[in-house]
Amino acid sequence: MAITVDEKSLKQGVLSLVVTLVEVIQEALERQALRRMNGGDLTGEELERLGDALLELDEAIEEIKSDHGITDSVADLHRGLDEVVDDVVDKLVNPARWAEEARR
């Protein structure tokens, strides 16, 4: 049995995944930057450079999503990843509840 692959759909799917992962990494970088800023670990110049870099990254991501028509698919994938991460964090925070549910 032959498998038919839609090349355009495959490329958009891979691009959506890559862009979503870059967004997740960007969010982690932003959280780390806020922690460092609140902790007084960054100079004014470092803050400015970091802010500029994160803004440029955000603009580039938005442009890629718009140019390739993947804005909705990235948002859907991002929501799905958020749910997975929430479940993993919940398992780490509430292991007894998850063990009880697994026994049922």
What is the CA-based Rg, rounded? Answer: 19 Å
The share of residues in extended strands comes to under 5%
- SSE order in H/E notation? HHHH
Secondary structure tally, helices = 4
Looking at the structure, what is the overall shape?
flat
The overall pLDDT, averaged over residues, is 87
Oligomeric state of the chains? single chain
Give the strand tally: 0
In the predicted model, the low-confidence regions spanning at least 5 consecutive residues are none
Report helical residue fraction: over 70%
The largest sheet, given as strand count, sense and whether it forms a barrel, is: none
N-to-C CA distance:
40 Å
> Which secondary-structure class do the elements indicate?
mainly alpha
3D architecture notes:
With 104 residues, this protein is mainly alpha-helical. Helix content is 86%, strand content 0%. The protein has helices spanning 7-38, 44-68, 71-93, 95-103. The model has no long low-confidence stretch (mean pLDDT 87).
Name a few traits of the molecule.
104 residues, mainly alpha
In short, what is this structure?
The chain is 86% helix and 0% strand. The chain has helices at 7-38, 44-68, 71-93, 95-103. The N and C termini lie far apart (40 Å).
